[in-house]
Specification:
four-stranded antiparallel sheet; four-stranded mixed sheet; 28 helices; about 45% helix; disordered N terminus
């Protein structure tokens, strides 16, 4: 045997912390992740869903980062010019809230600073915390192009936002109107639907009476959980076919507190079976009432100010907070005798601000809007005609359900931090939209509102590449190849990008009419029990904690192994530990191979390969084909599972053991062939694993091959070798035979290292006559001597024949002790079989028990039955019964 190259030796064990940071710095410094827009390679581009600049990466971020990185690394190895573009979102509401909270701690408000000084303060906070996410991305191993990092409020993106706003304004797609919005009294701004979460709240349903207190006179009873809004009621609605109220339709009833009368109107929206069959209408403070108000041309007085205090009603309630007013109005109605039912608890869904936790107030407000109809149609058509392909296809219907029924989009926010709307007002009410290269007219003042954050992030795929300028990056890398994001923001972010992308695509050309060719939607990351991770449940996992404890590769492999289009993933520490064990297994296998002189070189002719060599090489090709199919269809789980089981179950557990037998033959030619086969398997295996596990594979592959880096190596491809079914059958039979003999040894109580004589029959018929050396080594067997006495035997059915195995266990087993143990185990198995059989025979139990419980008992019954058979056979072989 030749002496191994000691320069290729690996450390004693795999410690991720010793390698990961240094490897990442080397990759970045070498420029491996920097894209060349002037290069001739075909482009592959991904833009990162920009995380909030004030946040940190949670497990959901880590999940999609791992998937994007795996796609990018693989395409880079396949010879593509890869641009994975990083960046962050200015997070208007989140950043402003954070800074205002800090100011409050200093006894200040934003008004104390003024707009200019406040914005300077936010920029300072951004500078202080903006590097946190970048450092986390480095720890994960993200192969992003740091030279192209963007921010939604940098100069280039701000120019893109102004250009887009003016273009849409000039095209009549942006307008100003008074509409109902989600209003945050704490933030004093409209908020988007995605910033509102709904929760069931125990409130009070109060029924009160409009009209006369005399039952013989006209009156109507209505009910509400938001009693203070009755101060803004402008109608009472009933169903047009409700005979109880037919005589009142068109009449008017006096308002108890406000100097106006309330008309009774008929509208199909009203459910005559619910409650009294009559509903109060407050158009300025309820979405459904607003729609009714529009249909019936009702007045829409706003009775809650920016901080949700009653105002403008001319009543004693003006100035009260909405919750105080709710109580005081109820008390005043009670004093008048208008409370007609006992106030009762009522569980109902209430929208809350995700930023502040307060109940959101529907409020009529003058805002800026995008007319979405033509934009949404183009976004829908792009998926229908295949310009953008959604993965999984099952998400298409959800996509069409949204874009085909989209309402106009409120894009203004009453904040200071963000892109200020480029509208200027003249002294006589003139309105001018100013582009990025235009100066506002003298004497004009700018709109104080800023744009919804989703407006700027909706431009992300092309604004980050230089639009509206015709840059080399835009020419090379747009449209992007794939967008990777969660299905939970399909509407809020993806739909915006598609609307903007198809809108500007009309100018960029037909080949650039969509922002991305593929849309891969992943699911949510859940805990090991399938629950959604959240701070309130205390079940969130910090991805950097797992990196510290298990290594980045373990985190990455855990997440990728569970990833399938559109499906949620459940992870726990056991999964991460398993992935860490896998990295250790790879390390130890490669270390063994290198210690035995493994190398990458030209393989000998198939005739010079053993059955074991031919089998592992053939299986390698099959696995590589599966991995390619998995990556191409975004079925990361399929690719990772194939690699895991091949590496662990087949290469490590079987081929390495077979290789030890081949090395032990002291045949230099055979040993050299084995070294080459080890290299021929490990080289592509490590390359195929590297997109998901880049750190450990980098150390192992460079030691094995002497290559510069896996990052710039070539992606492994399936060889031209024909599938070796003969070798596959032989090794599968060998594995089955060895497994059965090992199980038999265990049943007989033989020590793992104890050799026993054995005699086979029908090996020739099974085609395994030449593999006895493997069997002897793997099952700890030896040739029978002259004193051989078959004390036990078994038969193993293989693909071509049934092989008999006679074993001489005389002198190796305490027969009496084994008989006692087997008898005890048999009694327990028979008891379990009887109990499960009795339960499954009970018709009442089967009718009431959940199917999952019944299935568990069936499984227990099957296992018990198999144990009874096995132990009965064992006692027979021991001379018992």
């Amino acid at each position: 045997m030749t002496t191994p190259d000691t320069s290729r030796e690996l450390p004693k064990s795999w410690d991720p912390a010793e390698h990961e940071a240094a490897l990442y710095r080397r990759w970045v410094d070498a420029g491996y992740f920097t894209a060349d827009a002037a290069g001739e390679k075909p482009p592959f581009s991904i833009v990162i869903p920009p995380p909030n600049v004030n946040g940190s990466l949670h497990m959901g971020h880590a999940y999609e980062h791992v998937l994007m990185d795996a796609l990018s690394r693989r395409r880079r190895m396949q010879g593509y010019e890869v641009l994975w573009l990083p960046g962050m979102d200015h997070a208007a509401i989140a950043m402003q809230t954070m800074v205002e909270r800090k100011l409050a701690g200093e006894g200040l408000t934003r008004d104390d600073l003024g707009r200019g000084a406040f914005i300077e303060r936010v920029w300072a906070e951004k500078a202080a915390i903006g590097g946190n996410i970048g450092e986390q991305m480095r720890r994960l191993g993200d192969s992003v192009d740091w030279s192209r990092e963007r921010f939604t409020m940098d100069d280039g993106l701000s120019r893109a936002v102004q250009t887009m706003f003016k273009k849409m304004y000039d095209d009549g797609l942006i307008y100003q109107a008074e509409r109902l919005v989600n209003w945050s009294p704490v933030l004093k701004t409209a908020v988007s639907d995605i910033e509102v979460s709904y929760a069931d709240v125990e409130g009070e349903l109060v029924s009160f009476r409009y009209g006369s207190l005399d039952d013989a006179e006209p009156h109507i009873v209505v009910a509400t959980t938001r009693l203070e809004t009755m101060l803004g009621d402008t109608a009472i609605a009933v169903h047009p076919d409700d005979e109880r109220y037919a005589h009142l339709i068109g009449t008017e009833l006096a308002h108890p507190f406000v100097e106006r009368t309330i008309p009774v109107i008929a509208d199909d929206y009203v459910d005559p079976e619910f409650g009294s069959g009559a509903v109060k209408i407050t158009p300025a403070h309820d979405p459904n009432d607003f729609a009714i108000g529009q249909r019936h041309d009702l007045p829409m007085p706003t009775i809650l100010d920016e901080e949700a205090r009653i105002f403008g009603t001319g009543t004693q309630f003006d100035g009260m907070d909405r919750f105080e007013a709710r109580v005081k109005v109820r008390e005043a109605l009670a004093e008048q005798g208008r409370i007609v039912k006992e106030i009762r608890p009522y569980l109902h869904s209430v929208g809350h601000s995700e930023r502040t936790g307060e109940p959101i107030e529907p409020r009529l407000s003058m805002q800026w809007w995008v007319k979405v109809d033509p934009l949404a149609k183009a976004a829908g058509d792009a998926v229908r005609d295949g310009s953008t392909v959604i993965h999984p296809a099952s998400m298409e219907q959800r996509w069409f359900g949204w874009v085909d029924n989209m309402h106009d989009w409120c894009i203004s926010r009453q904040l200071w931090w963000g892109h200020r709307i480029p509208i200027w007002y003249g002294p006589d009410g003139e309105v001018v939209c100013v582009g990025p290269d235009d100066a506002p007219p003298a004497g004009y003042t700018q709109e104080t509102d800023v744009l919804d954050t989703w407006f700027s992030s909706g431009l992300w795929p092309f604004s980050t590449l230089g639009w509206p300028e015709q840059t080399a990056d835009l020419e090379k890398f747009y449209p992007t190849s794939v967008l990777v994001t969660g299905y939970d923001i399909l509407f809020f972010w993806v739909a915006r990008m598609m609307m903007f992308g198809t809108y500007v695509g009309a100018d960029l050309g037909p080949e650039r009419r969509v922002p991305f060719h593929n849309l891969f939607l992943h699911g949510l990351v859940r805990d090991e029990h399938g629950r959604k991770m959240s701070k309130s449940k205390g079940n969130g996992i910090d991805p950097l904690d797992w990196v510290e404890r298990f290594g980045a590769d373990a985190l990455r492999f855990t997440l990728a192994r569970g990833a399938n289009p559109g499906s949620d993933i459940s992870v726990g520490e056991d999964h991460a530990q398993s992935s860490r064990n896998f990295a250790t297994k790879l390390f130890n296998a490669t270390k063994f191979a290198l210690m035995n002189g493994a190398e990458v070189g030209e393989l000998p002719a198939p005739a010079d390969l053993t059955i074991a060599d031919r089998w592992i090489l053939s299986r390698l090709d099959e696995v590589l084909a599966t991995v390619d199919a998995g990556f191409e269809s975004y079925e990361f789980s399929k690719a990772c599972e194939a690699l895991y089981h091949f590496a662990w179950d087949e290469f490590c557990d079987w081929y390495l053991e077979l290789a030890k037998v081949q090395f032990a033959e002291n045949d230099e030619k055979r040993s050299q062939t084995t070294r080459l086969v080890l290299g021929a398997v490990l080289d592509p295996l490590l390359r195929a694993l590297s997109p998901v596990m880049p750190f450990v594979t980098e150390v192992l592959w460079t030691s094995l091959t002497g290559g510069e880096s896996l990052v710039i190596s070539s992606w492994p491809t399936v060889s031209e070798r024909a599938t070796d079914t003969e070798a596959a059958t032989a090794v599968e039979d060998l594995q089955k035979l060895v497994t059965e003999v090992r199980r038999f040894r265990s049943d007989q109580g033989l020590k793992p290292g104890q050799k026993v004589p054995v005699r086979f029959t029908h090996l020739d018929d099974a085609g395994l006559a030449g593999l006895t050396g493997y069997m002897a080594a793997l099952a700890r067997l030896e040739e029978p001597g002259t004193e051989f006495t078959a004390t036990a035997d078994l038969e193993v059915r293989l693909s071509a024949a049934t092989v008999g195995v006679e074993i001489d266990t005389s002198g190796t087993v305490d027969v009496e002790a084994e008989r006692k143990r087997a008898t005890k185990d048999l009694a327990a198995a028979e008891k379990e079989l009887a109990q499960t059989t009795e339960k499954l025979g009970n018709e009442q139990f089967l009718a009431k028990a959940p199917e999952a419980v019944v299935e568990k008992i069936r499984a227990r019954q099957q296992i018990a039955g198999e144990e009874v058979q096995r132990l009965t056979a064992k006692l027979a072989s021991l001379g018992g019964s």
